[in-house]
Amino acid sequence: MEPFIRSDQYHYIQQQVAHIVQANALINDKEMVQTIQAMARDKMSSVFEGLSGLQQRVLEGITYLEDRTDAEMFYARVLPLVQPFRMPSDEEVKGLFPHLLKVKPPVLSENVDARDMTYLSWFDPGLARKFLVTYRGGELVGMEGSFTYTGQKNICSICHEHEHVGLFVTDTTEFRRKGNYVCKDSIKCNLNMTTRDYLYNFMDDLKR
User: Fold this and answer.
1) Are 167 and 179 in contact, with CB atoms under 8 Å apart?
2) Do 146 and 128 contact (CB within 8 A), yes or no?
3) Structure letter (DSSP) for residue 109
4) Fewest CB within 10 angstroms: 61, 74, 193, 196, which?
């Protein structure tokens, strides 16, 4: 079966699995647990569209989970079906930022799984700019701006989790700048993401 699950969808699945495992560990009422399992299945179905019968059956395996062992076996079936983030080439990135002469994407650590990524972000100290690149409607898009680490935790505009953040600021016009808080650690941010909507909203808002 070809991969059909996005990174953010996979993280959402993990969230629902954790709820089910916790419910089984803490609740003795079997009917209540089954209700939680059914709710998790329905929530998960809401983030997928146009699935084949086989794809649906794979995901519906979530309703039979009881403990961590079941969860690990479920992940083993699902993880190969997660679409990895396609790293853009140097030429593609340069095409996104033609006004910059030496922009270049980073080389990811071997510890980073591309299946956990929805977007790519890096800070270039030479240019003193932070870059953000992702795919939208199958097209590569990106934005860049200044980044000032606050040294504190706040809600990230991209993953909506409470993390160490910095202020990302971009020029919307020659005389106007806009910014918002984003995770200092973009890898952690990617792992937190259970939807792409916040990322797209962040990019749209800063470009207005």
Assistant:
1) yes
2) yes
3) P
4) 61
The region of weakest confidence among 121-125, 145-149, 173-177 is: 173-177
Q: Write the DSSP symbol of residue 126.
A: T
Backbone angles phi, psi at 30, to 5 degrees: -65, -40
Question: What's at 1, amino acid-wise?
Answer: M
Alpha helices in the chain (DSSP H): 7-26, 30-45, 53-59, 68-78, 90-96, 186-192, 197-207
> CA nearest 150: which of 114, 179, 113, 109?
179
- pTM, to two decimals: 0.89
pLDDT in tens, 39-64: 888 887 788 888 898 998 888 888 88
Buried b / exposed e over 153-180, threshold 16 CB at 10 Å, is: ebebbbbbbebebbebbbeeeeeeeebb
The C-alpha atoms of residue 120 and residue 141 are separated, in whole angstroms, by 11
